[in-house]
Amino acid sequence: MSLRKKYFAGLGFRTNKPEFEPGEEISAFVTGHDGDAPVARIGDTILRVEGAPGNALDTRIRLRVEEFDDNDHRGTATYLETVGQSSF
Amino acid sequence: MVDKGDDPPKEEDVAEELADAREARSESRIEFYGGPAASAIPIALFIAWAIFQTGLLRISDTTGLVAGMLVSLIVGMFFAKGDWATYANTIFEGMTQRVAATAIVAWLWAGMFAQTIQDGQFVGGLVWAADALSVGPTLFPAVTFILAALLATGIGTGYGTTIAFSGLFFPAGVLVGANPVLLFGAILSGAVFGDNLAPVSDTTIVSAVTQDSDIGGVVASRFKYAIVAAVLAFVSYLVAGSVMPTVDVAGAANVLGEQAEPLGLVHLVSIGVVIFTAVRGRHIVEAISWGIVVAAVANVAFGLASVSKMLVFRAPENVAAAESLSWLPFLTTVPAGSDQVGVGGSLYAGAAGFFPLIVLTLLIVAGARIMIRGGGFEAIQNFLLERVATNVRRAETTMVLGTASVNAMITINTAAEIAIAPYVARIGERFNVNGYRRANILDANTSALGYIFPWAGGVLVGYVQIQSLVGSENFQWFTREFVVNPAEVWPFVFHGWFLFGVFVVSALTGFGLEYTTDRESEEVARV
Questions:
Q1: Distances (CA, A) of B278 to B36, B207, B274, B282, B435
Q2: Closest Cα to residue B249, out of B171, B186, B165?
Q3: What's the whole-number mean pLDDT along residues B500-509?
Q4: In Å, how far are B228, B265, B409, B459, B510 from B502, measured between CA atoms?
Q5: Using the beta-carbon criterion (under 8 Å), do B430 and A13 form an inter-chain contact?
Q6: Where are the alpha helices (DSSP H) in B244-354?
Q7: Contact between residue B294 and residue B304 where contact means Cβ atoms under 8 Å apart
Q8: Which of B31, B191, B382, B478 has its CA 20 to 30 A from that of A51?
Q9: Is the minimum CB–CB distance between A62 and chain B shorter than 8 Å?
Q10: Would you say B218 and B207 are in contact if contact means Cβ atoms under 8 Å apart?
Q11: Would you call A10 and B224 a contact, using CB atoms and an 8 Å cutoff?
Q12: Does B4 touch chain A (CB under 8 A)?
């Protein structure tokens, strides 16, 4: 990332319900469960993650968005790999 | 945590350690009389001690807090059920956490750098700049804010800046006729700015490493908030300077001129080197090391500080080796048995200055570990997530107000920051708030609140310094009427208030908000 981008990244107002495109690959923390399935809550948007390991809570994973509903800001995604852990 | 380092074993170590922490959180391995809530006794007792010592008695003594944490850990042990060896071992577990070790290494380097440029007459350079500008009483507070901010950004310590400026710029400003209350507020505002933004600031380092973000990236990402608050503060000092009453001191002398050293400004280059290399993504230890090298070379080349000012071995004169090597620029001999025998210089003093804080940090992290193992951490976290931080805006507001509240109570800001950091991390992660953003919320409010309230450590160090001016040899004209009571200055720490306000507005509106999906931190400055 260029120096200019480092200084100005995030400048502006961000929605509390970010949107994602099907096929998009992102990295996010698994933040809870919806029934048996782990979910990644990004702001107030919720992605249900399929295929994540049972102990995925609070780990950071790469996932691929499969479906996304722009109206209720919910979607489903596929677990790809675990890339990190919670800070504490 | 995303550690993209190219040393696989190191990454595995960190992953293993974090996995242990996760396991400790999910299993209550230490049972307490009184249930999981009793696991919070060491931390709660420490907070009570800190409020009593710093808030009530106004004693800013970090080693006193070390004693408080030690006593708290002992008291907590009496509430643990069964074998106390588990409790004792958890203290060791906590003290060996990497999150503490990383901050400690960065502090040691930052301490050496800060002292080296201070001994290299950087303050003298700022004095020269102020003197050259020949500012009057209405402009003096605004200019003081900018110069104090510059010093604090360079040396990373708001307390050090407050002491240096209260002892020199404050009496100079009063002599010029500036309003003393506004002047003290401007000095504290500069300290807030540097504590918040400097890559070598202890609070910057803690905010970055506890939120798993690289220090350079954190500094770059917080620039936008800091500059908004600074512009508002600067304008406020201009306006307040022109409407608030000025003072008239008879027998004014050239206080600033006597301390001026234009060449001291060369350390703007040393500071620039640290900021540039850190923001470019180099490891903070490497970035500060370059800063130390540039500062040391500049000190010697421009005659700002001798080699022995930066590092000196003072050996007893009856030691033969010392006698024969006394030609070395960093070796001197002193009478045998003298209390002068020892090692000294800015590299030594700068690192040593952090020793009490390092011990305190290790003990607080140990206390937090006991709370994690006893289930208290999870209970508070679940309460916040289920009842308070139920959506991303409320979560961010909780982080802002939670950090501010803890800092209002524990007035040594780094200690407060370490205590609240795990909650900011966990609440933020549960909404996938980016590590940079979490670090910014944590540090801005820590920096701001540590210099506003009358019982805050940053205010008290300045107050003590100003009090010492009364009747001092150099400032015989300085009477008690010019001393600013800590209770008067809080409305005038403009940068602190604006920084806090910027983050309240940011949390409510999403200004500057980034998610973990937006970008990843660069390599975290792990040891």
A1: 41, 15, 6, 5, 17
A2: B171
A3: 96
A4: 8, 31, 21, 22, 11
A5: no
A6: 255-259, 267-279, 284-301, 307-310, 320-324, 346-352
A7: no
A8: B382
A9: no
A10: yes
A11: yes
A12: no
Helix (H, G, I), strand (E, B) or coil at A30: coil
Alpha helices in B51-197 (DSSP H): 62-77, 84-95, 98-119, 122-133, 140-155, 158-167, 169-176, 180-197
Q: Is the dihedral of CA B238, B242, B248, B252 positive or negative?
A: positive
User: Residue B185, Cβ neighbours under 10 Å: how many?
Assistant: 32
- Give yes or no for a contact between B136 and B157, defined as CB atoms under 8 angstroms apart: no
What are the tens digits of pLDDT across the range B12-24? Answer: 554 555 556 555 5
Residue B385 has, within 13 A of its CA and on its CB side, a CA count of: 18
Q: Do B221 and A28 touch (CB under 8 A)?
A: no
| pTM for this model (two decimals) | 0.79
- Please list every residue in chain A whose beta carbon sits closer than 8 Å to the beta carbon of residue B223: 7
Longest dimension (CA), chain B: 72
Three-state secondary structure call for residue A81: strand
For chain A, say whether B512 makes contact (Cβ under 8 Å): yes
β-pairing, B312-316 vs B342-344, is: antiparallel
Q: Cα B423–B424–B428 angle (5° rounding)?
A: 115
- Distance from the A86 Cα atom to the nearest Cα atom in chain B, whole angstroms: 6
Note the ipTM here.
0.96
Burial environment of residue B244 by CB neighbours within 10 A (0 to 12, 13 to 18, 19 or more): middle
Q: What is the pLDDT of residues B301-356, one digit of tens each?
A: 999 999 999 999 999 988 888 888 888 999 999 998 888 899 999 999 888 888 88
Answer for the pair B66, B363: CB distance below 8 angstroms, yes or no. Answer: yes
Distance CA A34, CA A36 (A): 6
Tell me how far apart the alpha carbons of residues B286 and B295 are, in angstroms, rounded to a whole number: 14
| pLDDT band at residue B157 using 50, 70 and 90 as cut-offs | confident
> What's the CA dihedral at B490, B494, B500, B503 to 10 degrees?
170
Q: Which two tokens stand for residue B222?
A: 């917080």
Report the DSSP beta bridge partners of residue A27.
Answer: A62
Are A77 and A48 within 8 A, CB to CB? yes
**DSSP labels, B8-59:** HHHHHHHHHHHHHHHHHHHS--S-BTT-GGGGGHHHHHHHHHHIIIIIIS--
Looking only at the bridges linking them, the beta strands covering B331-334 and B342-344 are: unpaired
Selection from B483, B440, B433 nearest residue B463 by Cα: B483
Interatomic CA distance for residues B224 and B512, integer angstroms: 8
User: Which residues, in sequence order, are bridge partners of residue A78?
Assistant: A50, A64
Q: Give the number of other Cβ atoms within 10 Å of residue B183's Cβ.
A: 32
In Å, how far from its chain's centre is CA B306? Answer: 28
pLDDT digits (tens, 9 = 90+) for B443-459: 999 999 889 987 777 88
Distances (CA, A) of B94 to B30, B89, B315, B331, B525: 14, 9, 39, 40, 20
